[in-house]
Amino acid sequence: MAAQYQLIDKLTRSATGETRRGLLRVGAAYAALVGWLYQDAGDLDGAAFWRGVAQEIALRSRDPHLIGYSLVNQAQVRTDLGDGRAVVDLCEAALHDVRQLAPKVRVMSLQQLAHGQSLIGDRTAVDNLIDEAQSLLPQVTDDLPWGNACRRTPGYLEIQRATCYGRLGLGGEALELWPQVLAVVPATARRDRGVYMARYATAAVAAREPEQAVEIARDVVGIAVETRSARMARELDALEQAMRPWHDAQIGRELSDVLAPVRERS
What we know:
- There is one protein chain.
- By secondary structure, the protein is mainly alpha-helical.
- It has 2 domains: 1-152, Serine Threonine Protein Phosphatase 5, Tetratricopeptide repeat; 154-266, Tetratricopeptide repeat domain (Serine Threonine Protein Phosphatase 5, Tetratricopeptide repeat, Alpha Horseshoe).
- It is built from 14 helices and no strands.
- It has helices at residues 2-14, 17-40, 44-61, 64-80, 84-94, 103-120, 123-136, 149-152, 156-168, 171-182, 190-206, 210-227, 230-242, 250-265.
């Protein structure tokens, strides 16, 4: 895919006028996709590089929607790195002039800003931002070819809320939300479903329900082994860390046995 981006870049150098502007827009969106694939594979250095490429091309295109989108993409990498302040900075920059932004870009910026606030520890801001994004979701009717997860993914914003709650240590609240989310996530979306189930298991630990966490983890491991998803493996690492208070107990040893197939494949 990187080679295909290089072809787009080569064509851009020789194009002029509206053709060149169109290629810049396509190139920015394509680089963002390559960045996401690196991020999904667990290579955050590669993801940061390609997100930077996408931002440069977006700026050259002078398309405010694409510039906002590229800033949110950068914020996604900073979220995975645990840098809440940087996430807030990037999303606030994306939202600097909301009058220029399509509702979709505003939704994306607001939900990612909620992730930044969860890293900082502000639960009130998380709820307010997700609620504001929810009110904008019916207005997402554009034909932009990128950033469509917010209208394509069932329960998209509640997934973000549940994830933020888990990060905030609100195990009880997250434990209530995840079953509602998983009820609408199609079984065919195995990679995403596995990630969400791993977060569900971690929420169970935070709610002092380690037995439930291990039962959920059993289902996640099969998906993780089949898909070799680095994102899922990271979530299972987080689950293992959360279970450390039970490390020497029978349930802790049981979790280690459950996770063994993932460790063998990594």
